[in-house]
Write a structure and sequence with these properties.
This protein has 78 residues and is mostly beta strands. It is built from no helices and two strands. A two-stranded antiparallel sheet has the order 1-2. Strand 1 and strand 2 form a beta hairpin.
Length: 78
């Protein structure tokens, strides 16, 4: 499907407040992990991620942080 054929309404869904993580777990490796293998969707914990990675996989860690900032732009009128 071409991106121009996508509609934001296709990505709208109900998300219960109870399913939103507002803070990381104390033991971060206990975070939930969604696993998709073939046509099977399962749930595990992040601590077991190596079980699902094929031999020779490369894992890249992103240690960047979010900075609270606001950029203000002014759009020229035509």
């Amino acid at each position: 499907m071409h991106p121009r054929q996508l509609s934001i309404s296709e990505f709208t869904y109900d998300l219960p407040e109870a399913n939103i993580a507002y803070h990381p777990l104390k033991e971060r490796d206990r975070s939930r992990l969604l696993v998709y293998e073939g046509k099977i969707v399962a749930e595990d914990i992040y601590k077991n991620i190596a079980t699902y990675l094929p031999d020779g996989s490369m894992v890249v860690f992103n240690n960047t942080r979010v900075v609270e900032a606001r950029l203000r732009f002014k759009k020229d009128r035509w």
